[in-house]
Amino acid sequence: MRRQWLIAFVVLPLVSLGWLTVERSNAAPAHVSRIVYSQGEKIWVLDGDGGNKRFLVRGESPEISPDGHWVAYYRCNACALFLINADGGPARRLAGRGFGPPTWSPDSRHLATTSSVSGPYLVSGPTEDEQLTTIDRVTGKQHRIAVAPQVLGSSFSPDGTQLTFSMSSSDELRSDVYVSAWDGGALRRLTWDDRSSRPLWAPNGSIDFSHREGPLGERSNNDPLWGKHRIWRISRDGTGRRVLTAQLTPAITDDRTGLIAAVWSRDGKTLLAVSPTHGGDLLYLVDRAGSIRSLGDDGYVGGSRSASVISLSTDGRFVLVVLLVNGPISSTGRLEVLPVDDGTPHVIAGNVSGASWSR
Predict the structure, then answer these.
(1) What range does the domain containing 155 cover?
(2) Which stretches of the chain are DSSP H helices?
(3) pTM score, two decimals?
């Protein structure tokens, strides 16, 4: 499967002291704030306040459901996608080999994931395509959404009934944004410019995506980070398209791809965006008016020039990241909760290869 930038996101409520507490919901089961992470081939779970750490299961790349009750992960010896209750118990296989990290629906019922398939080809040549699939957590039923040379990210609508994603007709630098029902059917194309990718559904129902500007040039054929991207916004019906981040500073565009929308705070006031580089993700905050604020030293956080974003808190005050302290070639890093403003980071664990927070 081709390498993809897959940014898993979840959002947590915070109390005034900066840690997390359980959010009560009218839905059953009640929401539980939890963090899961993998070290080597072991997955650990702890409460949202950082306590009660316990071993969950052997595996890697855990993704916890928004309600905090289910963990999707990869079983190392099977190379397949499995599901387990966050309190422990027997695991159940969801999908076979070749599936990528999943995205959860807001109601924790469905997951979206990609896999490699061999045709039918949308372009000529003996290449593998990627298939976007949704899976029902309860029944295990799979729905094929789309097949393309590359599927670039996916995001469920706030009500969980629709899915937005981008797919390319040839390569990552030539893609557009689409919307479908969560269980498949006709696709609705929202952009027609071969320059739009990585959509993210916002809490207000709009869709944010990265739009590449300017000529590509010869370098773009070999470097997926080449080009300047701004974050644009569009309605789910394809109307009201406008630029959100109109003013990009040179620090964001010099030798970087610009900005990609990663996760909105649940209150809809703050967007966490990343500027991918060959050394990792640099972090920025964008408000609803499109103003951009860097975290740390011009996007470098926690004393590291390499980071992998996990999540943003409900009120936009805290960020969960894996800091690749040994540089971009490292496969593990230090999992930390970082305050957006001044404050002391909280280190959760070291040698972490993957993590997830329940919203």
Answers:
(1) 34-357
(2) 250-253
(3) 0.84
| Backbone angles phi and psi of 218, in degrees to 5 | -65, -35
CB 261, CB 285: distance < 8 Å: no
DSSP codes of every residue in 51-86: ---EEEEE-EEEEE-TTSSEEEEEETTTTEEEEEET
Residue 27, token pair as written in the block: 């839905």
Tell me the one-letter amino acid at 218.
Answer: E
Query: Could you give the number of structural domains in the chain?
Result: 1
- 54 burial (CB, 10 Å; 0-12 / 13-18 / 19+) is exposed
Judge whether 24 lies within some domain.
no
Taking the chain (359 residues) in consecutive chunks of 10 residues, what is each chunk's mean pLDDT? 36 36 52 91 90 94 94 84 96 87 94 80 57 96 93 94 90 83 95 92 95 63 64 94 83 70 90 80 87 74 65 82 72 85 86 86
CATH number at residue 61: 2.120.10.30
Which positions ≥6 away from 134 have C-beta within 8 Å?
Answer: 110, 111, 112, 113, 142, 143, 145, 163, 182, 183, 184
